[in-house]
Specification:
The protein has helices at 14-33, 37-44, 58-81, 86-106, 115-130, 135-154, 160-163, 170-173, 181-204, 209-220, 226-251, 257-274, 279-298, 304-323. The protein is an all-alpha fold. The chain has one domain (14-327). The protein starts with 13 loop residues before the first helix and ends in an 11-residue tail after the last helix.
Length: 334
């Protein structure tokens, strides 16, 4: 896909965007009003649950998303457990990346694939390491956020016509475990970029390895194609650079409290509208959202040092992810 072209969308995205926005903004707003904004930012990360199986009927999403939520909570718990040991965090990034990729590809979970399991692990370890919140409170807040986002996803079931739709059996929704030829190459790419990303992170900052690996896995995606790897790598790099500029501008507004909740919700809604159609443009909104959310949870909001680190990490990860695309055989024209 061209940097400046919009691809077709398989269907309307506003409902998914609204659900993701509510899953993100409501916990922040509620906990801000209760005087515990940090817990709100942590719970907001549970909105990642909404992003899976986005084009499936609600009756089918109701069956699939509990497994996604359980995986995200497990990733968060593992990050919390090893947060005090940089070596264990580095090893954990590799393990979580490989296991989540194997499960995502093996059971055909679809986009966004293993990406958020790795990011949740790394973000959880990072937040706990800063001492911003205790381990038990962190897990409780994150799990509550996942449950809340799941309930938001189920709200269309209040309509009789939505409930009337029949769901396929779970074994058809998550067929497997089985890895076909394309899935095996995708998994191999995740293994390679995870190991190399962590090794490169040791020379930069072990605490940032998860971002390098996450950027690489985001480029790999779920498409088994060499051309797609190169395109997504370019989109990831340029979109992140422009997104850091957007973060710098938004930081000048010093968003906080309910205004920050509204801003993050608006960013998340916009992301879901454009991510299918132009990945680079989506990154322009994804980057400030993640930087604002992480910064707010750790008290580092507005830090340009962190933003510049993310540019470096993203470029390294995107190059790794794109380069791993050469493992796919060239498609021959018939």
């Amino acid at each position: 896909m061209s940097l400046f072209a919009f691809g077709p969308s398989p269907g309307p995205r506003w409902q998914l965007g609204l659900q993701a926005a509510l899953g993100l903004a409501v916990p922040i707003a509620v906990m801000t009003l209760l005087g515990r904004p940090t817990l709100g930012f942590i719970a907001a990360s549970g909105a990642f649950t909404v992003l899976f199986a986005g084009f499936s009927p609600v009756v089918e999403r109701a069956r699939v998303l509990p497994f996604v939520g359980a995986g995200l909570i497990t990733s968060a718990a593992l990050g919390v457990l090893v947060a005090d040991d940089a070596w264990l965090v580095s090893i954990g990034v590799i393990v979580v990346a490989i296991v989540s990729a194997g499960l995502a590809f093996g059971f055909r979970l679809g986009p966004p694939g293993p990406l958020f399991f790795v990011l949740v692990f790394g973000l959880s370890a990072h937040v706990i390491a800063t001492g911003a919140v205790g381990p038990v409170a962190y897990i409780a807040a994150f799990a509550a956020g996942c449950v809340f986002s799941y309930l938001v996803t189920l709200t269309p079931l209040l309509l009789r016509r939505v409930r009337a739709k029949r769901s396929r059996p779970l074994r058809d929704l998550l067929p497997g475990p089985a890895l076909d030829a394309d899935a095996r190459v995708l998994l191999l790419r995740v293994v390679i970029v995870s190991v190399l990303g962590v090794l490169l992170g040791l020379f930069v900052d072990p605490g940032r390895s998860y971002w390098i690996v996450g950027a690489a896995i985001a480029v790999i995606g779920v498409a088994a194609a060499r051309r797609a790897a190169f395109q997504r790598g370019l989109h990831r790099m340029l979109g992140t650079i422009v997104g850091v500029g957007a973060y710098a501008l938004l930081s000048l507004l010093h968003p906080a409290g309910l205004w920050l909740a509204l801003l993050l919700g608006a960013l998340q809604f916009t992301i879901e509208l454009v991510v299918i159609r132009n990945y680079a443009l989506a990154l322009v909104f994804i980057t400030p959202l993640v930087l604002l959310l992480t910064g707010a949870a750790t008290g580092e909001i507005g830090s340009m040092d962190v933003a510049l680190e993310r540019i470096v990490d993203t470029i390294v990860g995107a190059v790794l992810g794109a380069a791993s695309g050469v493992l796919h055989p060239r498609r021959t024209k018939s």
